[in-house]
Amino acid sequence: MTEEWVGDPTHIAPLNRYAAALRARHGDVPRFDSLDGGIDARVLVLLETPGPASASTETTSRDNPTGTARNLTRFLDELPLSRRDTVIWNAVPWGLPRREGKLGRPTRKDIEMAAQDLPALLALLPRLQVVALAGRVAQSFRTALAAAKPELRLIAIPHPSPTHLAASPAARENLFGGRLRREIAVALADDAS
């Protein structure tokens, strides 16, 4: 991956410096999407691990050419906030080796190392109010997030991958039904008052 991209907008530059520091230690870590809110975000969507599209685009983005990104975009577009209110990242932000043709799963060591890096990320997001934990790996970071920033509202959401949603109609209904959107909207409204 390219180490230094010229011209990072000021709202995303601190996050991409954070990503570059992780890249120096762990290898394949994508950048944050400059179209998202960056350091001004109020909602962090924490996915599990970078998918193959992140390697080709070098960015964790709802605009990546995948079904997961399309489903995430659909979910986020129905929230009562703008794209500049959100930022997307991965619980384990470095690429994992493929195993038997499938995406690698994070090990306990990957999860422990990534949890240690979370406070530095949260320190870069002063307006953050809500973390949407997408999938089991992201949801395993609940304790680390609460310890680092206790005032955050942590909301579990199904992982938006097409495979997961196809295997679980309940997860699909949960993601695209109105309950999660209302829960996030209420959390943002409560914090604003």
Automatic annotation (TrEMBL):
**Record domain Uracil-DNA glycosylase-like: where:** 38-164
Q: Which InterPro entries match?
A: Uracil-DNA_glycosylase-like, Uracil-DNA_glycosylase-like_sf
- Give residue spans, biased composition: Polar residues: 54-69
Species of provenance:
Alsobacter metallidurans
Q: Enumerate the residue ranges of region (Disordered).
A: 50-69
Name-wise, this protein is Uracil-DNA glycosylase-like domain-containing protein
Show the Pfam families listed in the entry: UDG
